[in-house]
């Protein structure tokens, strides 16, 4: 049930209003990219694309591409749902003041679907587009590495979240594998009751040190959220040579992998299909690809933003083109489309269940399967009536809430499932109706693992920046950061306004780089990766991400 008195940002106009060449879709609030002032913002359609416009009284108008396809925006918007909210908020407020006081506040609409913990801001790479790693010599540079007591306190805060205790953790950085005690960090998380732990990493240490890969797996790390920006050295200079070795380490340790490409228009958006094909060749260990359209941080002129800006629909369109139509635009659904399944399980169990109630514009996904004979992809939508199945789940959830016998209702759901699946087109070895039946009757998602035997999840998650920040989206965010001051802060506040959140909080719990070097007896630069697997690649490419040709192009474009 929604929290009484919850204040919602948006929507003073749900209808389409013609204003010359553009049509208003809705109104929301955003921030000025220069001064962070909270501004009224208009989301509108023009030329079949969705834009956002806002006007700061000091810095003027800012117009930004919001969603690259109005048709896809309309389709995705039908899945707009409110979540359970934060029933045990860390920040109590009477009136919504988003994003001034995140952590979670009583107006937030989603529980933590995935919590992030930064365990270090050190990194062994220096990628030009990365928004966050410690750089020695910069004024105000600091070393942030929470100790074990702070880590345990953050985990207790996450587990105290209600109505759903946080149960999925991503260890991130910087590069987490630079911490020599990373296995101990993972053990603390497991001791505090978190079931699923994934590590956001470039995979270099997994490639160079298989024993370290084994240690973190034994400690409780389930999978790697592995940076992978392209299939060539030009598009992926950071770990092109190291990826095969990292995958081998994962095979030997039973660690699953999610490829995570940061997608930048004009840089690597021509290789999205190639990334999927590479994942297909390694489906024994790679179970998902989660594309992340780049967030544009720092001050950047409109022409530069237009050069690099890419949105969820743009990526989906390129994937259709680059897979020769095997994965089409119609195969994708927004993240909150899975909520009807959660709702029917929740109605049956009479207990709050994990849900993905983020804004429909935040992300999308689909499942694809490999045909054993042709080796072509068969998307889930090609043999399953997804829309019909979701409507069935929602209808039956409402019947249970209305008092109908829940056991008879669920049996009716299970009986009807086969009617939504075309068994002749279903990939060999997959019984989708049976899998959904197990999920429903066991009231858990353990059976989802069977999808991965011959399947690959394709995801898309577009984090916001100051140019396109939609506070309506922020209120629904379910990807959060836990912080040592015992708050839980939404991703698109924590990183979009670092001077309020990320940098301010972490600097408070940090030491200077010089103090860290003296304490540890090493230099920060000693941790940089020297490209030991790149011999013979040529000096420019062997130098990796910091000196790549793309880096020079981008640096010149943004001067």
From TrEMBL:
InterPro entries tied to this protein: Aldolase_TIM, GDGT/MA_synthase, Methyltransferase_Class_D, rSAM, rSAM_sf, Zn_ribbon_HMPTM
Alphabetized SUPFAM superfamilies for the sequence: Radical SAM enzymes
One Pfam family matching this protein: Zn_ribbon_HMPTM
Listed GO MF terms: 4 iron, 4 sulfur cluster binding; metal ion binding; methyltransferase activity
Domain Radical SAM core per the UniProt entry, residue ranges: 109-334
Record key words, sorted: Iron, Iron-sulfur, Metal-binding, S-adenosyl-L-methionine
Keyword S-adenosyl-L-methionine listed: yes
The protein, known as: Radical SAM domain protein
């Amino acid at each position: 049930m929604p929290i009484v008195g919850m204040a919602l940002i948006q929507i003073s106009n749900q209808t389409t209003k013609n204003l010359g060449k553009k049509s208003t879709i809705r109104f929301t609030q955003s921030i000025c990219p220069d001064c962070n002032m909270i501004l009224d913002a208009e989301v509108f359609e023009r030329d079949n694309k969705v834009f956002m416009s806002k006007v700061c009284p000091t810095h003027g108008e800012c117009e930004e591409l919001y969603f690259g396809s109005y048709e896809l925006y309309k389709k995705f918007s039908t899945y707009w749902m409110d979540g359970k909210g934060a029933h045990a908020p860390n920040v109590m407020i009477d009136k919504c003041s988003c994003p001034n006081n995140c952590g979670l506040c009583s107006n937030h609409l989603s529980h933590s679907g995935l919590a992030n913990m930064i365990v270090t801001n050190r990194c062994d790479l220096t990628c030009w587009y990365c928004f966050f790693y410690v750089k020695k010599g910069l004024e105000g540079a600091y070393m942030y590495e929470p100790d074990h007591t702070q880590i345990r306190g953050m985990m207790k805060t996450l587990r105290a979240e209600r109505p759903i205790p946080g149960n999925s953790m991503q260890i991130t950085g910087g590069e987490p594998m630079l911490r020599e005690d990373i296995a101990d960090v993972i053990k603390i998380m497991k001791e505090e009751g978190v079931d699923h732990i994934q590590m956001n990493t470039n995979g270099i240490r997994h490639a160079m040190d298989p024993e370290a890969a084994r240690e973190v797996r034994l400690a409780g790390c389930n999978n790697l959220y592995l940076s992978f920006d392209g299939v060539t050295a030009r598009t992926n200079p950071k770990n092109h040579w190291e990826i095969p070795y990292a995958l081998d380490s994962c095979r030997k340790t039973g660690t699953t992998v999610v490829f995570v490409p940061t997608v930048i228009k004009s840089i690597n958006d021509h290789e999205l299909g190639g990334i999927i094909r590479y994942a297909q060749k390694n489906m024994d260990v790679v179970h998902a690809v989660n594309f992340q359209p780049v967030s544009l941080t720092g001050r950047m002129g409109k022409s530069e933003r237009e050069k690099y800006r890419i949105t969820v629909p743009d990526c989906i369109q390129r994937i259709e083109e680059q897979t020769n139509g095997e994965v089409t635009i119609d195969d994708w659904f927004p993240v909150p489309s899975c909520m009807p399944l959660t709702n029917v399980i929740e109605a049956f169990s009479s207990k709050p269940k994990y849900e993905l109630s983020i804004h429909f514009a935040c992300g999308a996904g689909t499942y694809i399967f490999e045909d054993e004979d042709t080796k072509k992809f068969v998307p889930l939508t090609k043999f399953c009536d997804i829309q019909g199945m979701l409507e069935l789940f929602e209808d039956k959830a409402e019947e249970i809430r209305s008092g109908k016998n829940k056991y008879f209702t669920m049996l009716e759901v299970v009986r009807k499932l086969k009617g939504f699946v075309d068994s002749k087109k279903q990939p060999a070895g997959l019984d989708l109706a049976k899998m959904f039946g197990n999920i429903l009757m066991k009231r858990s998602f353990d059976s989802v693992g069977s999808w991965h035997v011959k399947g690959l999840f394709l995801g898309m998650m577009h984090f916001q920046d100051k140019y396109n920040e939609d506070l309506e989206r922020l209120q629904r965010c379910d990807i959060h950061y836990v912080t040592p001051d015992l708050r839980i802060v939404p991703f698109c506040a924590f990183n979009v306004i670092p001077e309020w959140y990320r940098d301010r909080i972490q600097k408070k719990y940090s030491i200077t780089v010089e103090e860290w070097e003296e304490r540890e007896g090493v230099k920060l630069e000693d941790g940089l990766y020297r490209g030991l697997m790149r011999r013979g690649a040529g000096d420019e490419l062997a130098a990796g991400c910091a000196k790549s040709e793309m880096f020079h192009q981008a640096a010149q474009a943004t001067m």
